[in-house]
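Priority: medium. Attachment 1 of 2:
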């Protein structure tokens, strides 16, 4: 009698081809999901940036409600309009003169009452937006870069940082002209657009009065009221993004210090000290003036004192009514100029930007 032959057990498993197919499918799924994940992260960062600017807008309106005027871009004692901050006392010139800076307005007594004081708009509104502790740590009777204030001005302020900007904590070198010492200032990503240079208006065929700029709402040592915004507060930009400073970016690419560009600073190499000036939230010179910085663009070309953000397609702006809007980089130059203007009489439709 024959014994039954043992049957061999077949091992179940994937063949090499099947395994490669599975890996390929997983790779395709990851490639499809990754942009969606990155987009969701950017949406969250952009929302936080909007919230930051809403806080800034609320601070300005609380300040205006108490004082009857918006905080100026900066406040500087009349004595400091002379050297070392400017080559001449510009307050002695008639207001129509180029470069004219008004004397410290008496209503801004917190600064005008001190002989050598200078502050940016950020400390002025801190007490009106739940930043009382930091405000109290700043000696407002002394200029911001003085030794008594170096710890405070090097403190990162969360509402001044856009989370989309590379490097959440950045320090900007600042030369204190009062004592010749370099001070490190915590960077800020939001700044005042003072206006638009005529050369940019001409290059972009923007209608304007010959020889005149487009003036922005806020200005140093000058007090604006809500009633001054005759274009409507919902049609006028109050605060803009100028993110990434003191690092220098062009079209999303960081430019190394020491690089020479034909249109930058008469061909001189890009220096950290140049980019650091105006980058700190406490720096009175944090405001900027739109001139294209070597281009005819108004948004996201250069971070060198221009509207610049790390959000795809445009930048966030706080408007004079406290709202925040995303203005696309493709917005027509005439519309952008109208948004910066506060009393030009332009009519802007809600879908224009």
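Attachment 2 of 2:
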């Amino acid at each position: 009698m024959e014994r039954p032959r043992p049957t061999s057990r077949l091992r179940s498993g994937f063949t090499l081809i099947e395994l490669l197919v599975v890996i390929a499918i997983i790779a395709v799924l990851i490639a499809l999901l990754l942009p969606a994940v990155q987009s969701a992260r950017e949406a969250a960062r952009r929302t936080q940036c909007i919230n930051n600017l809403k806080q800034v807008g609320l601070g300005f309106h609380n300040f205006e409600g108490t004082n009857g005027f918006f905080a100026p871009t900066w406040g500087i004692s009349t004595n400091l309009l002379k050297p070392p901050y400017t080559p001449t006392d510009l307050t002695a010139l008639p207001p129509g003169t180029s470069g004219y800076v008004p004397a410290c307005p008496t209503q801004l007594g917190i600064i005008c009452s001190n002989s050598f004081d200078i502050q940016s708009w950020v400390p002025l509104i801190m007490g009106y937006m739940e930043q009382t502790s930091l405000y109290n740590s700043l000696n407002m009777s002394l200029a911001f870069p003085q030794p008594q204030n170096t710890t405070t001005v090097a403190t990162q302020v969360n509402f001044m940082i856009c989370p989309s900007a590379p490097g959440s904590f950045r320090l900007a070198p600042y030369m204190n002209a009062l004592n010749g010492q370099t001070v490190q200032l915590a960077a800020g990503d939001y700044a005042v657009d003072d206006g638009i240079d005529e050369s940019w208006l001409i290059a972009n065929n923007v209608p304007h009065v010959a020889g005149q700029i487009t003036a922005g709402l806020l200005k140093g040592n000058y007090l604006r009221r809500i009633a001054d915004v005759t274009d409507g507060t919902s049609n006028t930009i109050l605060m803009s993004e100028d993110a990434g400073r003191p690092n220098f970016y062009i079209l999303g690419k960081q430019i190394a210090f020491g690089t020479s560009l034909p249109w930058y600073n008469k061909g001189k190499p890009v220096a950290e000290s140049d980019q650091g000036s105006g980058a700190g939230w406490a720096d009175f010179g944090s405001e900027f003036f739109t001139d294209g910085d070597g281009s005819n663009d108004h948004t996201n070309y250069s971070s060198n004192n221009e509207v610049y953000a790390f959000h795809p397609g445009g930048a966030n702006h706080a408007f004079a009514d406290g709202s925040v809007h995303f203005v696309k980089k493709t917005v027509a130059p005439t519309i952008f100029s109208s948004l910066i203007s506060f009393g030009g009489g332009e009519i802007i439709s809600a879908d224009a930007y």
